[in-house]
TrEMBL record:
UniProt keyword Signal present: no
TM spans (from-to): none
Annotated GO MF terms: hydrolase activity
InterPro entries, alphabetized: Beta-lactam-related (IPR001466), Beta-lactam/transpept-like (IPR012338), Beta-lactamase/esterase (IPR052907)
Domain of life the protein comes from: Bacteria
Protein name: Serine hydrolase
Keywords: Hydrolase
Pfam families: Beta-lactamase
Domain Beta-lactamase-related: 34-370
Length: 381
């Protein structure tokens, strides 16, 4: 039985609905997902299938986009300075030779503290303050600033501690006041209890036999950088797919992986970052977007064991995922398959969520065809 496609598209974006319908028709009967896009602050795509219009999902590392937006705002304000050493804000971070790192290095995934020798408990993973305290004492896994690797579960806590030291407030509080509340975004770093009934628990990946064989072929061990970065070296190794299904994680909203959002919330945040929305000026000035979207770490990612690239925190989406997008596009994917970005050249802001954990993790493969369809329609305007 083919899922019905709900929602609307603006004139000229009918092809996006057709592409979404064609994708959903080839998916499992229980598929749930949402797609939303803005162009120059105007919503042009708002589609969903297999769920309610206002459903909320765990968006895993797409959460990081909200964390980096807060940092970009504070840099733009002059509250934070990219060339300042991390220890200027957070003296304890100097332990074990990390005192050489600047905020720019930290944002570019060059710190080398992707985890700890003994891993974290679930309670620690849910609490950025506890993560930061553990990471301050941790020796780096490579010489700080000399290489890069994805700080998958901890980057939000690292920048969050700097935000707290500089402002006296948590990153989550700054996000709530300056980003989520003014725009009414359905993108939460700490899900209020009143919204819990809207949350749809993440479903586990169900790989096909050949996909499972590919997963099994990846070299792994409890003390590899990848295992440390994803907390598989802990006494109770982390099941990544289940993290947002933990009430404590949803309630605290850790800034690396704990966000809960709809596609509307993801796209709306990136629209607000680069465009006038509802007669409110863009959150970021063009120079700030350009600075944070500029390539900073490019090449072999020591954690991913593959070519990757990062700007300042944000994934450089046109290099990492969608080469048809403009240079300097800022965004972030999430392990369940979510994807969100802002292309400053076209004014396009995109958000996608899905319920079932996608193979192989990161932006789900369908994002390429869906984002391409939205981009094509945007260029034709």
């Amino acid at each position: 039985m083919t899922q019905e496609i709900h929602g609307t598209t603006a004139d000229g974006f009918e092809g996006v609905r057709e592409e979404f319908a064609a994708f959903v028709a080839g998916e499992r009967p229980d598929y749930e997902g949402q797609l939303c896009a803005y162009v120059h602050g105007r919503k042009v795509v708002d589609l969903w299938a297999g769920t309610e219009a206002d459903a909320l999902y765990g968006v895993f590392s797409s959460t990081k986009g909200a964390a980096y937006l807060v940092v970009a705002l504070l840099v733009q304000d002059g509250t934070l300075e990219l060339e300042r050493k991390v220890t200027y804000y957070w003296p304890e971070f100097a332990a074990e030779g990390k005192g050489v790192l600047t905020l720019r290095d930290l944002l570019a995934h060059r710190a080398g503290v992707v985890g700890t020798d003994t891993g974290f408990t679930l309670a620690e993973l849910a609490d950025d303050r506890q993560l930061a305290e553990r990471l301050a004492d941790q020796r780096p896994f490579w010489r700080p600033g000399t290489a890069f690797g994805y700080h998958a579960l901890v980057s939000g806590a690292l920048v969050g501690e700097i935000v707290r030291r500089a402002t006296g407030r948590t990153l989550q509080d700054v996000y709530q006041e300056r980003v989520r509340t003014p725009y009414g975004l359905d993108f939460h770093l700490g899900l209020p209890a009143c919204h819990e009934p809207r949350f749809r628990p993440t479903q586990p990946m169900e790989p096909a036999p050949e996909q499972q064989a590919a997963l099994d072929a990846v070299p792994d061990g409890p003390h590899t950088l990848a295992s440390i970065a994803f907390n598989r070296n802990a006494p109770e190794p982390t099941d990544l797919a289940s993290l947002p299904n933990t009430p404590l994680v949803r309630a605290k909203g850790p800034a690396s992986v704990g966000g809960v959002a709809s596609a509307r919330g993801l796209a709306g945040m990136y629209a607000a970052a680069i465009s006038e929305v509802g007669q409110q000026a863009p959150l970021l000035k063009p120079d700030t977007v350009a600075e944070f979207g500029q390539l900073h770490s490019v090449g072999y990612d020591l954690v991913a064991r593959a070519h990757k690239s990062f700007g300042l925190g944000f994934q450089t989406t046109s290099d990492t995922w969608h080469p048809f997008l403009g240079a300097g596009t800022i965004g972030h994917s999430g392990a369940s398959g979510s994807q969100a970005f802002a292309d400053p050249w076209t004014g396009l802001a995109y958000g996608y969520t899905r319920r079932r954990f996608a193979f192989p993790g990161g932006a789900a493969p369908e994002n390429d065809r869906l984002a391409r369809a939205v981009h094509r329609a945007t260029l034709a305007l």
